[in-house]
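W.,

You were right to be curious about this one. When I first looked at the sequence I had no strong expectations either way, so I just let the prediction run and decided to look at it fresh. Below is the sequence, 243 residues in total, followed by the output.
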Amino acid sequence: MTKMNFPLAFKDKINTPEREKSLRYLSQEKKLDAREVNLFRDAINELYNRLEAAGLEKQEALINIKPIPTGFYRYMVANEGRYTHFKDAEDAAIEVNSEDLNRGLVEIWVTDNVAKKVVLYQDIQNQVEAGIQEIVGNEDLKIIVESSAGDFLDPNFMQTTLTPTVTKYFRPYNDDVVSWQWFRESGNTDEDRDSDQIWALDKNQPILHLEPEDFTPKVFDHGVTFICQAIVNGNEIITEVSL
């Protein structure tokens, strides 16, 4: 899964024709005005800053030092190892391994001499997503498809590449997709449906390169619809692209 770094630092979004073009595959209710995106970023960063401010003091955790016995303190961890002076509620020493350090920022939080290991990237991300859900409700995973040819195909150059991205809360989830499948709807006759089924047999990669023969002559009558299906965490996600 792709990491999200906090606080979010992208520049203010501006409503432009280019931005509108990049969002053309989203339904109207899923589109956010540039100002709304900026407010959304600021709300996430405010939540992040509040979480960061929850600790009263930060120090560096070292193998051979003892934590301050009373009060609440946060200790930054830079190295893996067994921190024998930092004991959890079960009186077991806190252990930090390379996997913890690779996942995010590692800290040991100590409250009245009781220690707890916290991986900040994971925990803050979970809390931010929970906060987002509380504010705007649950958002489903969705697929956004980008066409290399843009909104319109040149009749003299019937080629394009469709690139899908599974997203949720502006984060890509393509690494979590266990299977991809493309389908085609070129018409309503039995012949059209049979042709579409045969066409889809080997279309199980995320990126779809389309050549003139993929569109069929029906494209000049009523267009052709390409359907992208992704399976993520047992959920089937579908979106359509009409060309």
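Here's what jumped out at me. The mean pLDDT is 79. And, maybe more interesting for your project: The chain is about 25% helix and 30% strand.

Coffee later to discuss?

I.
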